[in-house]
Structures are given as C-alpha cells and as structure tokens.
Amino acid sequence: MKPRSTATRELVNLDGLWRFSLDRDRWDLEAAVPASYNDLFVDSAIRDHVGWVWYQRQVRVPRGWSGEDIILRVDAATHQGRIYVDDVLVAEHVGGYTPFEADITAHVSAGQEFRLTIGVNNELTNTTIPPGTITVTQDGRRRQTYLHDFYNYAGLARSVWLYSVPAVHVQDITVVTGLDASTGTVEYAVRTSAPAPVRVRVLDATGTEVAAADGAGGTLRIPDVTPWRPGAAYLYDLLVEVLDGDRVVDSYTEPFGVRTVAVRGTEFLINGEPFYFTGFGKHEDTPVRGKGHDNAYLVHDFQLMDWIGANSFRTSHYPYAEEVMEFADRHGIVVIDETAAVGLNLAVQGGLTGVPPQPTFSPETFGEATRDAHAQAIRELIARDKNHPSVVMWCIANEPSSHEDGAREYFEPLVELTRKLDPTRPVCYAAVIFATHENDRIADLFDVLCINRYYGWYVATGDLATAEMYLEHDLRGWAARHGKPIMMSEYGADTMPGLHAVWDTPWTEEYQQAYLEMNHRVFDRIDAFIGEHVWNFADFQTSHGIHRVDGNKKGVFTRDRRPKAAAHALRARWKPLAGRKPPRDLGRDT
Q1: pTM of the predicted protein model
Q2: Active site residue: 68, 241, 380, 399, which one?
Q3: Catalytic residue among 404, 490, 509, 532
Q4: Which CATH architecture does the domain made up of 311-452 adopt?
Q5: Would you say domain 264-286+296-309+464-590 falls under CATH 3.20.20.80?
Q6: Does residue 364 carry a catalytic annotation?
Q7: Which of 5, 73, 164, 246 could cross-link to 68 by cystine, CB 3.0-4.6 Å?
Q8: What is the DSSP string of 322-366?
Q9: Residue 213 Ramachandran class (φ > 0 left, ψ -120 to 50 alpha, else beta)
Q10: What confidence tens digit (pLDDT) does each residue in 236-258 have?
Q11: Residue 590's pLDDT band (boundaries 50, 70, 90)?
C-alpha cells in the first residue's frame, strides 16, 4: 500500500540531494532524487555506465517513533535495487517500475541517525522485464543493448520514504465496486499484520459517512451513489480501522471510485455505457530528469490532455508513478495500465539490422525464467494499482512476437494469472505489425484487440493513398476473425517542428497531420472500433542509432511540450467526441 500520513501513521519524505557514486569508493558527486542519473552529469562514462550505482545519505528517525514499526520504501529503482542500513542489506528487488520496502525496525532507533545506502543496477538480460543483452567491447567496456525504443534511463526515478506503522496494522486493502441501479456496491477485503478486529466506513467527498461495517471482508452498499465517470471523477474514501477493544490502533484511508467496466460484443463499457478512447501512448520522459517523476510536468501534461480532448492514455511501456495514477483518479482520466514487458520480439531486431533473428520464445532466448519474471511484474502491477478507478484494462505486453511459435505457450499462463488476480478488468496486449489477423497465435485469449500500426510511415512511406488501403484491409481482417472491440494503441509519424512542405513529405508538420487524418477516416469506417491512442504524446529520448535523431519525434507535442500542427488538428477532432464514437463514415475519401 502507498504510504500515507494518518492518525496512527507518520511519514517522512527522503527526496533531495543524495551522495552519488559509481563504485562506493568515491562520494564526490551529488544526485537528485527523484531523477534518472544519466543526464544529470556531463561525464559520458556516467551516462553510459552499465551496472550498479550507489546513492547515500544520513537519515534521522523521528524521536516519537519509539515502539512503532519503521519501514523504508523505494517507489522505484531501475531496474534492480538494494537497500542497506549502515552496512546491513535489508531488502533487494528486481523490477524497475514497482515499489519495494524493508522493515528496518530492528536496525534503527527512534531519535537516532543511520546511514542509508541504496544500490541501483540498470542491467537488462534475457531474463529481465524488459529484456536486453550485455556485451563487452574490445577495450573492456560493458555495453548494454535492448529491444525497446526509449532510452534506458536508470536510478531512483521516484520518491524514497521512511514511515511508521503500529505493531498491528493494515497490510493490504482490495476494493471492487459495482452498480445496482442507483446503489453502489463495494466489496472489500482487508489484510492485517496480525489477527485483530476491523471496522470500515465509507465517507463521501464531504466527509459524511454513507456506509459502514465490521469485519475484514464484506460488501457495503451506498444509496444514491455518485459514480466515477470519465471526465467527471467522484471519489469516496474507505476508512479502515484496526481495533483493540474500543481503541483504534491503526487507521488507513483508501480512496476509490464506484464504477464498472465490461466488454459487450464489440463495445467497451464503463458504467454500462459505450466508451470511445481518445488519447495517447505516453512516456515518463523529460529533459534532464529522464524518467524522474516531476509534479510540475504531471500537472502540465494533464492540462494539455484536457486541452486537446484526450480522455485516456496507456502507461507505455511500464507502470507509471503512483502520483500519476492518483491524479487520473481525481480528474476522470481513463488508463490502460501496462507492464514493462516491451521487447519480447526478436523479429523487430532482425527487421532493423538485417541480421536473421533467433526464435523469440525458446530456452536460449525468452523462456521459462523470462516468463517467471513477467509473471512477477504482473503480480506487482495489479497489487499496486488494483484499487484505482481510472485503470480500466491491464495490458500485459507491448509488441511481442505473437505470431511466432511458442507465443501461445508463453502467454496463456500469463493471461490466466492476470484474470485470477483481477477478474474484474479486461486484459489486452499491443500487437506488432508483423502479427496479422492471419498469423497471430494469442489474440483469442484477450478481451480487446489493441493494434499498433504505422502504414504511411514504416510501410508505404509518404504514400497515404496506399497506406489507407493497407490499414483498412488489416483492421477489417481483425474485426472479421475475432468479433472483439478493436482500438489503435499506436499510430504516428516522426515530425520535426518547423519543417513544412506543400507535398506529402515525411517529417513535416503537414505530413503528420495528413497521416493522422488518413487513419481517422479508416477508423470511422470500422464498426468494431473503440478508440485511438496516438503515438506519442510528446517527443522522447531513445538510445543511439541512425533511426533516431535526438530521440523519437512522433510526439504531437515537443519534448518541452510545445504543440505541433497535429495537436490542433487532434483537438478539433477529439473535443466534440467527449468519449463518444465518431459517426460512421460509409464513404471512401481516397
């Protein structure tokens, strides 16, 4: 559970400047937390470092915490983290985008200082999520390569916390909501650190109690409920109290929204009403900070999404900071929540390099150990984000080789696990262009078909008439074969701001706009279509390579959030929709 300050808990934020070192022998540098470390310094040896780095600071435990359990929490360490109290290793975690913590009660004392050291390792291998490969150059330098098209920023990109809890305390809360006419139903389950009586109360936005019950599990009913809706968020608080007789020994408040999500035929339903996705694939990516969470960018990005008429986004290609999810909850933005499983596709590497690819799914490439890491990533994502009303769908992978031998054997257990952990939300993956309705091995396992396509950019470059025919044939094939809701989870064209032409010239602002308009004509002719997520919200940094010049330029906003011409065109299309499907276009404007 996210640390919160309550009547029985206290919280200290440890963000700021920490001592920083590559080898723990020299501590002459300082690094900001939260931030990726790569772009903070001018030394390329730090930016390109492969392996462990170290953060260190002194921490004083508040003197009033005597008799409390003391917990150290790291919101994210990309991609492996270790926590040391003085010189004692107290926790270790693999996975760069989900939190981990350590109970350090036995190692510290209230009112006293301790030395906190956190190691962070950015290495990616064939058994990590996301995967990668480490090689050694002729001069002995370690070199990291990976299969995803965004920079492998590393470090403590999110906050670090010290917090206290009573000896008997709430450890986990699960909330599942429903609608019964005008009544909201709230199924809840509470886990405590030791057996103890539990009392729960539901408070509305004014703080008024609207439902209550005793016990660690049950169902509450809220008369005349105000549902959580896209664009019209309404949150209740579930106040959970652990009791010792009449005394409250621990309290924790979990915000939640009452809403339902379902797939019916080719429709995606929120609260029983058809919903049409407009928005983006995004990235946690800003200048200097890299993937470091920044509340100023958080507010501004959501303002830009509101301005442009976006009602949703996908957390491509990893779980975002919890502050982002909470902001979406409070402001009625719909989220497709994705694991960090990007790059499970060796065919893409072959397409870019010309080197014949290896089989993607095999003991030597991505096998059982990779799938185990993938399963753990799914467990941690759902455990962290299960109570967010903004999250309407789990995306368990981006552009895997779903057309290859072994794909079904790899993914079927993961889909089963996802449904077991959360049977209330639809499950999807984002299909790569090599996977078609004719050769894909796994689409029938999922609820919604999320398709990534770049006709007019990577295929039929500069020929939008041909691209339009290819795209329509492709989407109609998926619709005919599966009879499921379809959305475009990625479509876009790289664009240099300020580059113009009167012709269909790739990289110009006019071409990006014409490319999007072509896609929209096709979308509006497909009955089963439920949404459009442009790739990307903003330009972002990528690894070195001749395919990119200072990063990926498919954003409709620049990296510093200035609109390109396409942003104004999207605003004209999306603002009038307000979550409704566009009128079907029966003609062919080609």
Answers
A1: 0.94
A2: 399
A3: 490
A4: Alpha-Beta Barrel (3.20)
A5: yes
A6: no
A7: 164
A8: HHHHHHHHHHT-EEEEE-S-B---HHHHHHHH-PPPPPSSSTTSS
A9: beta
A10: 999 999 999 999 999 999 999 99
A11: very low
